[in-house]
Amino acid sequence: MEIREVPEGDVDQMVDLAALVFHQRIEKDEYDRVAWPARRAERLGAYDDGVLAGQLASLPARLAVPGGFLDCSAVTFVGVLPTHRRRGVLTSMIDRMHADAIAAGRPVAALWASQGLIYGRYGFGLATRAISMEIDTTRPLDLRTTPDPAPLRLVDLASAPEVLDPIYTRALSSRPGGLLRDPEWWAQIVLEPVDHEAPGYTEPRAVVHPAGYAVYRTHPDRTVMVIDFVAETPQAEAALWRYLASIDLTSRIKAPGRPVDDLLPHMAADPDQVAIKGDYGALWLRLVDVPAALRARSWAAGDAFVLEVRDPRIPANEGRWRLKTGSAPSCDRTADSPDLTLSAADLAAVYLGGTRLTALVRVGAVTEHTPSAATRLEAALAVPLAPFIHDDF
Ligand SMILES: CC(=O)SCCNC(=O)CCNC(=O)[C@H](O)C(C)(C)COP(=O)(O)OP(=O)(O)OC[C@H]1O[C@@H](n2cnc3c(N)ncnc32)[C@H](O)[C@@H]1OP(=O)(O)O
Q: Which residues form a coiled coil (predicted)?
């Protein structure tokens, strides 16, 4: 088995392999749409006697972390032929992806997992969750927050990226976990004209407020489906929900991907009108360069810890690190005895502030050597708004 870059000419083979492993039927006229991430990405293939038997694509991206953005490999399009599974093909591709990310100076990698048991062994931790909501709009949606009265306007899809992107990017500064978008990303991931996984829905509509926007589709069965929703103030949030809830000839809103701390369940005068339908794991994060990632985020409290990190797949991360949090963070090797011992995967899970370190101690995954060290580090990791990934890539 040879792991090497996949040339542009083999992208159609990648689409075929993806269709095979994800059990999808892809019509010839859909190849361009499906192939878009693979064309844009750094492509790795596992070739068996010249035949593509496994693949992994990494989109160079920028991930919002507390206090800034980090270069990130956004991993997607992962698959191994059913004839070649469980022979270490994925493991080899992940090792190569890690080496490529280190060489490119990208301290983190991120992905959506098809199954929860795959990526922990490679040092990925589940760093964000999301909820799905359904809102009954057969009656008016009364809100406890006064909507910002600034006018709303619909924007056409061609100008939507330019109009919406500044609002989106500003929102990433207060809520980590999302990826910066460029116009092509907006067009392919957010404003795709037809969603093949949501048949019968219209093309996306975009409504904008000075401090927020909503992108949504509607269905003749009277459903409004929220694709992307960002508000910079609770009042703008209220204005956008009120708009969505009052569109004529509709009777429910489905919002399949919202932050776990979404305000609407608290904002609705009648909580029964807003049903939380699901809560699911979203972004898996990998700290490819642990000290660089720890130095790069901002911290909610100044403190100091010795972390003993276990990372068999990336030995450069393995060992003891003295982490100083606060306004000038530092992370350097030390021989001192540790306050906490944890895996690279669990460190990634808590890194964005969305997973409680004390819970990982309580389940026995993280070892606390110094009493209260986990409580103190959890306080330093805390973020005001729960991390959230907007895009399914
Ligand atoms: C970011 C994304 O694109 S997510 C999409 C991932 N792709 C899919 O789910 C498509 C269908 N599945 C596949 O293509 C393959 O089965 C893959 C990619 C999940 C795994 O590829 P493989 O080459 O079989 O993995 P590999 O042999 O390297 O497995 C390494 C270890 O992980 C384990 N493992 C791999 N996949 C799974 C899984 N789905 N569930 C549990 N364990 C798994 C293996 O058992 C093995 O464990 P071991 O070392 O203790 O024996």
A: none
Task: Report the distance separating Cα 292 and Cα 28, nearest Å.
Answer: 44
What residue ranges in 265-369 does DSSP mark as E strands? 274-281, 283-287, 304-310, 319-324, 330-333, 340-343, 367-368
Q: Where are the domains of the chain?
A: 2-106, 130-279, 289-381
Tell me: the pLDDT tens digits for 4-58?
999 999 999 999 999 999 999 998 888 888 999 999 999 999 999 999 999 999 9
The amino acid present at 388, given as its one-letter code, is F
Q: Decide if 22 contacts 74 (C-beta within 8 A).
A: no
**Token digits of residue 344:** 């690279």
Choice among 186-195, 294-303, 357-366 with the minimum mean pLDDT: 186-195
Q: Which of 69, 77, 119, 216 does the annotation list as catalytic?
A: 119
Q: What's the average model confidence in pLDDT over 93-111?
A: 98
Interval 312-365: pLDDT, tens: 999 999 999 999 999 999 999 999 999 999 999 999 999 999 999 999 999 999
Global confidence as pTM: 0.97
Class of CATH domain 2-106: alpha beta
289-381: CATH number: 3.30.1050.10
Centroid of ligand 1 to alpha carbon of 40 (angstroms): 24
Quote the strand ranges of 210-265, DSSP E. 212-219, 223-231, 252-258
Ligand 1 is surrounded, with C-beta below 6 A, by 21, 75-80, 85-91, 111-115, 117-118, 121
Catalytic residue flag (residue 77):
no
Distance CA 73, CA 78 (A): 13
Given the CA of residue 115, which atom of ligand 1 is nearest to it?
39
| Mean pLDDT score of the chain | 97
> Residue 197 has what pLDDT?
85
User: Which CATH number applies to 130-279?
Assistant: 3.40.630.30
Q: Which of 1, 22, 80, 393 best tests ligand 1's pocket when mutated (most atoms within 8 Å of CB)?
A: 80
Please name the residue whose Cα sits nearest to atom 48 of ligand 1: 86
